[in-house]
Design a protein that fits this description.
124 residues; alpha/beta; 3 helices; 4 strands; globular
């Protein structure tokens, strides 16, 4: 489960990129600490024309409590006290532009590779 403050942008992009290359038996979802009403227009814009545009979950953002027992929790630019051991990503690129999308893609793909090889999930 990818978690960001609103469950509408960063976590949605991470889940889409992860699901594109997810190892067998794995799939990602997203949630927010304080969910927005709709998916971020920035996420839709940044993923338009990419290989994962059709993987963007455009259902209403949901709270963390709506996802039961995730195997791995990745927080993106936020923290979640109720998820000890969560992987924490602090993005280097704060603006909803191509560098952020590329950074999220790279990290999601690295996570998928790590899970596929049985390695430990890296914090960054």
């Amino acid at each position: 489960m990818f978690v960001c403050p609103h469950g509408a942008g960063k976590s949605r992009m991470a889940a889409a990129w992860f699901n594109r290359v997810a190892p067998s038996g794995w799939s990602a979802t997203s949630a927010g600490l304080e969910p927005q009403e709709t998916v971020s227009a920035h996420a839709v814009r940044l993923l338009a024309g990419t290989p994962v545009a059709d993987l963007l979950d455009e259902t209403s953002p949901r709270p963390v409590s709506a996802v039961s027992d995730p195997a791995v929790v990745v927080t993106i630019d936020c923290s979640l006290d109720s998820a000890p051991g969560a992987v924490s990503w602090r993005l280097d690129n704060a603006e909803f532009e191509e560098p952020m999308c590329s950074e999220i893609r790279q990290r999601a793909e690295e996570l998928a590779t790590t899970l596929a090889t049985g390695g430990s999930t890296p914090d960054r």
